[in-house]
Amino acid sequence: HDAEREANLRGEFEKILKALCVEYKVQDELRQDLEGAFAVPEGQEPPIKKMLLAKEHDHRSIRALCDTIKGCRYEYLKELLLVNCGFGDKTASLIGQTIRYTLFERLELRDCGAGLKFSEALSEYLGNPMQCKLQKLLLDYNDLGSEGARLIAQGLQNNLTLKELSLQYCNIESKGGKYLGRMLHPLEDPANPGQPHPNPESKKPLELLVLTGNPLKCAGIGMLAQGLAKNRTLKKLNLENTSFGHNALATQALAEAVALCESLQSLNISGNLVGNKGAKELYTYLEPKRHLTELKMTHFVRGDLYGKLIVDMIKRNKDEKKPKKKKGKSKGKKK
User: Fold this and answer.
1) Contact 50/14 with Cβ under 8 angstroms?
2) pLDDT in tens, 227-246
3) CB 226: neighbour CB atoms within 10 A?
4) Closest by CA position to 128, among listed 163, 101, 92
5) Burial class for 81, CB neighbours closer than 10 Å (0-12, 13-18, 19+)
6) In contact, 13 and 51? CB cutoff 8 Å
7) How many whole angstroms separate alpha carbon 97 and alpha carbon 57?
């Protein structure tokens, strides 16, 4: 019965999409791209779990897609990937308003021109536990800015589903570090905002945060570190090329936070000018700890003493995490 139901819903989705493309006067090339994206992959069986658009689209074509999603609840579709579509913030906001009608687990808008309107619609969705099912959210190469980061972080303040968030090259500046730091705070009591959750077992699911290429600078990293220090669930943090390493105080704040966040296993700070003092702070705070098993950094240090010590420290942590081989029973000597 489920296969029959899926086939009926898939046929309805295709029918509505074609009709709306005609009604909205979608260009033939874009209509064909939409129809091709919603198709059973060759060599696979239905249902259709993922749609990928990787060419420029306009408002009409994305509107047709969004209205089709709302008009036909094809619940089997779990992933929507829009890459280099370039349709802008107004059109992106349609997607932000539409995902509440879906069961999407992954949403990717990469280099699509999304901005504040999209961030506002997305924030409302992320903050609604009755609607949000997203586990992976990738918004790389959109000019969201610090205000966009604020809106998204606000939506994720008490989110219970999102595991991975990527905001690479989104022009998030120092002020954005403050909002993202707050996002990393433990869950709050819904009845008493600002107070810890009454159930200590209730934790945020966010495990991966990627902020590569955002000019957070020293102040932003410092404020982000304040939230990281209180976090107990994040496993991977990528701060590559975020312009903070030349200030040893910022590196110290980050090192102290990483030492306190014992769930963290991987840290990437490559492309930041971490000098002798910064490397010393990293080693001083992290050497007594054992949880970090991957640390990527660019060594701008004379003599590279602490760089080598850090490499040895990470190797030690990795080795200790490896499962120990069980000793086999010694065989008796043959007489």
Assistant:
1) no
2) 999 999 999 999 999 999 88
3) 17
4) 101
5) middle
6) no
7) 18
